[in-house]
Amino acid sequence: MRNVGFKLSCALIFIFSLSISTEVSAQTCDLPDDGIAFGSDFNETHRIQGNKIPIYLRSTMKVHGFSFGIQISEDTLTFKDRTLGPDDERLFENIISRDDGKPLSFEGNQATGLGDAAITKVEKAATLLEIQGDFLAVDIAPQMGGSGITVGYLVDLVQAGNVIPATDDEACEAHHILDISLDTVFVGKEIRRGDCNGDGSVNINDAIVCVRNLFLGTNKFFDCNAMLDVNGDNLLTTADPIVILVWLFLEGAPPADPFRACGPFESELGCNESNCI
Ligand SMILES: [Ca+2]
Ligand SMILES: [Ca+2]
Fold first, then answer.
1. What distances in angstroms separate CA 158 from CA 163, 175, 196, 249, one per listed residue?
2. Fold of 2-25+189-249
3. Measured in angstroms, how far is the CA atom of residue 196 from the centroid of ligand 1?
4. What architecture is the 35-185 domain classified under in CATH?
5. Cys bridge to 252: 44, 72, 246, 264, which one at CB 3.0-4.6 A?
6. Among all ligands shown, which has an atom nearest to the Cα of 233?
7. Spatial contact of 50 and 156, defined as CB atoms under 8 Å apart
């Protein structure tokens, strides 16, 4: 028993030191080239969760502005690179104006799971909020071209030399530029307890991310307290990341179901964003 306690103490010291010193990232850089991706990761198709769709921008050149069209269909938002809607007179090319003067057009991504939701707002997000003297134009109900939205952004109306900085491609960097708000909140129907970074497996990284989520408020990959409740007791405590460690290193009991695979769940803790994407 003393030996088990000693091992657990070592594991805890290990995890807390890692939680302070190690940067954990589950981001993947799946974009084919520089361009716009949306969602909490860079997969080409992102299932809509919650009521906000974050839009990210990657470009290895400085950016002076962008314009793009979003087509709304029954179940998807699609970033279109050509015509938006049935009216050919209305062309919305997805363009990023870069520092080298070359416009960058790109194929669109899709967000699925829209259901009956409607877009209510398009807002500037963190990267653009830092810039003063800029301009954002949003057309939520185009008169021509069918169902869709156009978003146009100019970085420097006041000629103060504003730009959106280049992103570091090797570091998988992305700028959070816009948030699209929907009038409906979508919650994933399934979760996997303990997969705190949502990469499909439960390992020591998840214990670190859980600790950071619970006690430092950092590395939040998902807005889902039910997923952080690893032992399923409807409380968020130190016991939750410890369950992962004890299961991993001391052959202890596994996390509560759903754990080995994504599955339906009941929780009093709430979950606005499923970790099963
Ligand atoms: Ca994981
Ligand atoms: Ca718990």
1. 12, 22, 43, 59
2. Type 1 dockerin domain (1.10.1330)
3. 6
4. Sandwich (2.60)
5. 246
6. 2
7. no
pLDDT by residue (tens digit) across 24-40?
Answer: 334 456 554 556 777 65
> What proportion of the chain, given as a percentage, has pLDDT over 70?
69
Q: In terms of Cα–Cα distance, which of 146, 147, 151 is closest to 89?
A: 146
Q: How far is the CA of 209 from the centre of ligand 1 (A)?
A: 9
Q: Is 142 exposed, middle or buried (0-12, 13-18, 19+ CB in 10 A)?
A: middle
187 CA from centroid of ligand 1 (Å) = 20
The pLDDT tens digits of the residues spanning 205-258 come to 999 999 998 888 888 888 889 999 999 999 999 999 999 999 999 999 999 999
Q: What is the pTM of this model?
A: 0.60
How far, in Å, from the CA of 275 to the mean position of ligand 1?
9
Tokens 């670190």 map to which residue? 208
CA of 245 to the centre of ligand 2 (A): 14
Length of the chain: 277
Q: Which residues surround ligand 1, an ion (CB under 5 A)?
A: 195, 197, 199, 206
Show me where the domains of the chain are located: 2-25+189-249, 35-185
Of the listed ranges 42-56, 78-92, 188-202, the one predicted with least confidence:
78-92
